[in-house]
Amino acid sequence: MSSHYEAPIREPLVLGEKSYHDISVDVGAPVLGKANKSWWIVFTIALVAFLWGLGCIIYTISTGIGVWGLNKTIGWAWDITNFVWWVGIGHAGTLISAVLLLFRQKWRMAVNRSAEAMTIFAVVQAGLFPIIHMGRPWLAYWVLPIPNQFGSLWVNFNSPLLWDVFAISTYLSVSLVFWWTGLLPDFAMIRDRTTSPFQKKIYGILSFGWSGRVKDWQRFEEVSLVLAGLATPLVLSVHTIVSFDFATSVVPGWHSTIYPPYFVAGAIFSGFAMVQTLLIIMRKVSNLEAYITVLHIEYMNKVILLTGGIVTVAYITEYFIGWYSGVPYENYTYLSFGAATGPYWWAFWALIICNLIVPLSLWVKKLRRNIVWTFIVALIINIGMWFERFDIIVIDLSKDRLTSSWTMFQPTFVDIGTFMGTIGFFFVLFLLYARTFPVIAQAEVKTILKSSGESFKRLRAEHGDD
Amino acid sequence: MYTLPSKLKLFSIILIVLGLVGITYGFLTTPKTVEDVKKIMAEQEAHHGEGHAVESHDEGHDASFVDEARGEEGYAEAAMEQAADTHAEGHSVSHEEHVLHQLQTRPWSATFVAAFFFMMIALGVLVFYAIQYAAQAGWSPVLYRIMEGITTYLLPGSVIVFLIVVFAGTHFYPWQDHDLVAGDKILQGKAGYLNFPFFVIRAVIYLLGWNLYRYFSRKNSLAQAETNNYGPYRKNFKASVLFLIFFIVTEATMSWDWFMSMTPHWYSTLFAWYIFASMFVSAITVIALVTIHLKNLGHIPFVSDKHLHDLAKFMFAFSIFWTYLWFGQFMLIWYANIPEEVTYFIIRIQEYKLLFFGMLILNFVMPILVLMNSDYKRIPWFVVIAAVFILVGHYIDIFLLVMPSTVGHNWGFGIPEIAAFLFFLGLFIFIVGAGLGKVSLRPKNDPFIKESENYHF
């Protein structure tokens, strides 16, 4: 794929005196070893949150959607906020694995596996909401165009909510296949390294008999490239379609043509923040600091800066065009003078501070390379991007065209519990993943060891690089 | 050292002269009075027999496009007001005067379309160049001199565009008409942004910002070739990042100023980025064309077909990206069908149907078909074919941004348009040729140059 020569000015991506063997050992260790106490504690907390959320979901479905805080004006609130938030988080995974592959960014290799895992687990959480926010979720299969005994009654393909069904399900399946394909050589590595016959059996099944022949690798690379080429437009279109849920409407604040690229940029922004949150902890607890280096964190911070900048320009555009349009209704949208001073002023300013002001600190190189600060900023962005979706949905709905239907939204404990439950479920899945899957694509990292490994770069500096 | 081949030089001079004559002709032959317009219309009517086409145009005026689209369903009074600006003067002037104004605008618009088209190529190349620096790209440093050569055109090109937008007045920008604003509440509301002094100040800022970055990045890039430390490179890195921030903001305001305010009631939040996509894909296409030209003449042996492959990939990808934004804007406006927004597309579909949809074939379908195959992206003549599709397509795109908003249905593609295109094409070739010729085309001492020269995949 890429040239073996690398400019000396580039910083190394693999630190220390690592050999191919060391990589296998380091990546295999968390899978082959035993879980420690803190893992069990965190896992239990996540599991409890998940079970609580499950209870809330069952309560909602069995009692009715009225147990949520929705009202006749605001028919979408936490449900769709959380849906868009989770889908957005998922986007960084595909961006890292597909878009960065197309741009031949070698640094992606240490982070892509976990980012993709995060994608899949986040999309699973997102996928819950379109079902559970239905009034009659047991009829959810009616959204599928299946021939039936109602005179073959079909769906209307004009609704972006139906496009969502196709977008999310395609996105989940393609991401899953892409992820799994990349896992084959790594599962095979675990299969070959483990001493337990049970693990050997399991990883033997999971790795589909991968034996790493030349022909296999050749096709493996080609498939990765084709899937990356397909996943890139997919990732753009999925969040675009999610944005269409709002932008196709005539609700002031929702109807805005910038939504497709702006939502995508916001998705990458929030997704990378989540990757930072997870990987900063993972590199520590799984002893992967030699692979997920400060440089990786800095690069991800740069992507956050870029997408955050794009989102900021979109905010300014929305704000400006809201004024420029001269439409009086535009003064009550989520980015307007009215929102900044109205009853949801706190949500407006939470968005501005978390997404616009705090990330500006990453322009300072010292802070960008500071792991603790990065972790804090990433958390703040995650909160800010939740508020962005909340503001778009709730503020815009709360003050629509008729003043007689203006109202406010109050979440109930079921709204909150369901959201907490998805966070718990996400971490249950992610924690299980971190213990059973090779969290770094070791086969890929091995391909850059000799061009970008610290010790090899030093050797080249000493002996000349020709 | 490259020199513009003498035949090409002569060709460009001929284009400039021919273009200049044609543009002058275009300006001199516009009708001067309402009487002229009546004569023209009478002639047209005679030409068309029963005058069917002209008739429908005429009727379209008082009712405006919104009414036609909405038929008898009824529409808000406010929407009517909004729609009134598809013809700049509203209802206060006679139809003949209106046509007169549009006919007088035509040479202005024709010149502006071509002037902006070539300027945006230079500007787009500058952005691409800045991105290469900011991204520390390892493949593209061998192309730096080529990109710098193309951006030579930015200074003269942007000055010409600046002069046109400043002096076009009410030909382009109805909000500069005081009588119109006096009777229009919506425009009064926008006067804080859409007023002439601020408009000019903004244009000056864009001009300064873009050209200063061009000047300093070129200077640093040449200084890098003379030194052994990476000082100038580091300066350029910082300058590029700052320029990109400056650019993303000014590109948005530029689009609102120069294009969106041609129909000052209409607005779309995506608009600025849509214009950027057009700019960017055309720019990359021109880099590829110039690279192929230089390669054919044997000036750049260090550029391989792998570099061409990458450029072609960018042409391919950003053609799709452009289509994505085009669709995003079009579909959302079509779907919601809000009267004050939809006027923009109604006039384009009713009066420019072939161009409007033909552009999609040129800008999307053809690049996909031609450039999908990996091997084809390394074959120069294949890339040239795709490039022709893309450049023609994006010329039409700019044409469709300007013409429907300024001359409405009184458009044509004749001497003024062709002459303006030829003039700026000639100027572009001449200036870029001179720009490429000043220094060696091989950038030296760039930290990534060796990576770039050894680049293969």
From TrEMBL, chain B:
Q: Does the keyword section mention Transmembrane helix?
A: yes
Q: Which residues cross the membrane?
A: 10-28, 108-131, 152-173, 193-213, 241-259, 271-294, 314-334, 354-372, 379-403, 415-436
Keyword annotations for this protein?
Membrane, Transmembrane, Transmembrane helix
In the record, what lineage is assigned to the organism producing the protein? Bacteria, Pseudomonadati, Bacteroidota, Flavobacteriia, Flavobacteriales
Q: Which domain of life is it from?
A: Bacteria
Tell me what organism the protein belongs to. Aequorivita soesokkakensis
Q: Which PANTHER family does UniProt cross-reference here?
A: PTHR43044, QUINOL:CYTOCHROME C OXIDOREDUCTASE QUINONE-BINDING SUBUNIT 2
Quote the protein name from its UniProt record. Quinol:cytochrome C oxidoreductase
